[in-house]
Write a structure and sequence with these properties.
single chain, about 130 residues, alpha+beta, TATA-Binding Protein, five-stranded antiparallel sheet, 5 strands, about 40% helix
């Protein structure tokens, strides 16, 4: 499966990755704004079983402020989503939005900000393993 963002396959368990993600994000100035347990949501809303899958919405306030000053429409790209899920082979995968593919696409005023966010998210993923 092709990655839609920055992707890291981990040796650690799903539980360990979910537990360590907030600290990895915090190390780069991000805070967790939202957490969505997709497995539980789909069970409750549709009565279907789904793999363990969590969406975490992360925000770095100084960078968010900078982006909004550069372009008020940048808010549609916030917060930065990071997902943790179990792959078909049982391994744990973490993917983060790639702001160079989203926020900076065709908007030169956002490109330097997106490059900064991308580098920070790459370091977060590296910290996870």
């Amino acid at each position: 499966m092709a990655a839609l963002g920055l992707r890291k396959v981990l040796e650690s368990s799903y539980e360990e990755a979910v537990a360590r993600l907030p600290e990895a994000l915090s190390s780069e100035g991000f805070g967790v704004l939202t957490e969505i347990d997709v497995k539980e949501t789909l069970r409750k809303k549709l009565g279907v079983d789904f793999r363990r899958y969590k969406i975490v919405g992360a925000c770095n306030p100084p960078i968010a402020h900078e982006a909004l000053q550069a372009n008020l429409g940048a808010g549609v790209m916030m917060p930065c989503n990071v997902v943790v899920y179990e792959a078909d082979d049982g391994r744990t995968v973490v993917e983060a939005v790639d702001p160079l593919q989203t926020a900076a696409a065709g908007l030169p005023e956002l490109r330097p900000i997106a490059e900064t966010v991308r580098a920070k998210l790459e370091r977060c993923l590296a910290r996870l393993g």
